[in-house]
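Take our chain:
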Amino acid sequence: MNVEQHEFERVAVFSFKTHEGVLILILELFGDGNVVLLSEKGNILQALEYKRMRDRSILRDESFKFAPSVSKNPYSVSDDEIASCLKAQSDTQIVKAITRFLSIGGIFAEEVLARASVEKNKPVGQLGDEEIAAIIANMRRLLIQIKEENLEPYAVLDEKDGLVGAAPLKLKRYESSPLKIQMYANYNEALDEFYSKSSAVDHATEDIGISEMEMEAARIERIVAEQHGTVSYANAEAEQFRRAGDLIYAHFNDLQTLLNRFLDGQKNGKPWKNVAEQVLAEKQQGLMPSSLFESFSDKEVAVKVNVAGSTFSLSLQRTLFESAAEFYEGGKRVKHKVEGARTALSEYQKKLEEIKNRIEAAKELERVKPVEAIEELEKRKVKRKEWFEKFRWFVSSQGSLVVGGKDAVTNEVLIKRHTESSDVVFHADIVGAPFVVIKTEGKTPTQHSLAEASEFAGAFSRAWREGFASVDVYWVKPEQLSKGGPSGESVGHGAFVVRGERNWMRGTQLRIAIGIQVNEEKATAKIIGGPLGAIKEETGRYVVIVPGDKSGKDILKLIMRKLVEKTPKNFREIVSGLSQEAIREFVPFGKASLLKE
């Protein structure tokens, strides 16, 4: 994989090889941001966000165009251009003029000005030619230092060893006496140390919003109480509606007789008031059905009754059947409201429980001292990968580290960066094979180590893909490798010319052992793979694969099943839970056959 920055913009370009050819991933870190996947020809395959714009469009299958640059690339712009552009912004502060014109971040713009002894807030129009020349010169020196990777990464600490910041090179802003620096091997480590520890300290010491969360919890508690009241009231109302409908049918004749008194009075020309007074007089005498009467509403033309302790109104414009049906329907409507209120109540109760849990967690975190937080962070820190874990590798039965390339890029890196003069380099006698290196540490490798490295180099060569049973492998010393061909022409990326005598390992058998390594104390297991002799030294539970036609998930499932069978019963559940993908890296070209035991 290759990573580069487009011009000097906030755009990262990742290119990597796949089975479908080279793919390009564009990461745009400006505006709302976007991620775009391109084909090798630059056509858009996928995008996080598709959009049509005035100057370009992000649409599927269209050719990708970078956004127009809003500033100049400081690596390509001339000194005269810089001077001319700065002078054109006479009223602008110099620090802002630099960041706008060259897209240099504020911290580094300030560093350039500090090195040039120019006040950062000084208007450009007040700068002399010597000051502008000093700014340009110091900017050039800073850019060269970064480009040549002449870095001095460090974290900055205050007088109490609290983390203040991190930088890839020494900055004048951190030269004040109370501040101390802690150097790191690379900038990534410095950033990781700064952001992880400062985050832990912040959580342990700052007000993490407990009061705000408690206010929110109180607000939700009030809503929950209101919702409880709403549900209780709605249930009671629904019961009243249902009971009214039932009572109408239970006392139908008496109620109808009572209503008829009012209806007959109307037919005979009697005012409602007179009829109501007459019915009240009969009620006082305890006569039925007048005893059910409560009052009469002229406005609603309805008789209010009290039946068996329940009070409700009956409209004279409806039949009793219609009134009963209306009460039942009203009860259904209220029941529906109850369901909605209960759903809302349940949601608020969940929110209340969640925020109470957050408050408890925050209070617990608040009690942890910064030192304790950092100690805990150190315990949880993920172990950094060793350099050789980016390659194929194994430890020989004699204890030597053996490392192999995965492709042209890793072949190139392995030989150029990680191979020393005392090491031994292997290569299968076939086009399309990795370089494999025994890291001897100045010692003479044993025959066992030579044989295992030879087996490793052969297995991951094209001979496996072609289905060979064996292949010839040779080994040489690093000084026998060269990037120059016989006539002075250079060879391709990942390839080297071999000069001098080769040491042959004829008829090297193509096979790979894949095993399970169990740690009984920790009750853990992991999958390992490599030459048979090396794996035998590590575990007695393994299978051997050879070139074959079974591929994909079929071969992975078969290997996993066999490994589980070889595992003690009390560990089979742990092994079964391992990802089959861990096996894939040990199956050359993704296809094989299981060697019968």
